[in-house]
Amino acid sequence: MKNFMYSAPMYFAVFLPAVILLYQICPQKFRKFVLILANYAFFFIWSKFFLAYQVITMFITYLSAKIIDRTTNKKIKKISLIIAIVINLGVLVVLKYTNFFGENIFAIFHQAFTPVHLIAPIGISYYTLQMISYLMDTSSGKIHADHSIVDFAVYASFFPTLIQGPITRFNEVKDSIHACNPITYQNLKFGSQRILFGLMKKIIIADRLDPAVSKIFTSYTQDGLFSLIGAVLCTIQLYMDFSGIVDICLGSAEIFGINLPENFRQPFFAENASDFWRRWHITLGTFLRDYVFYPISLAKPIHRLSKFFTKHFGKAAGKFIGPFIALFAVWLLNGLWHGPYWSYIFYGLYYFCFMILEILLKKPIDTFFKKHHIDEKQIGLRIFRFIKLFIIVIIGELFFRAQTLAVGWTMFSSIFTNFNLSTFTETLPFLRLDMIDWIIVIVGTISMFLVDLYKEFHGSIRIAIAQKPTWIRWSIIYSCIFALILFGAYGPGYDIVAMIYAEF
Question: What is the pTM of this model?
Answer without folding.
Answer: 0.91
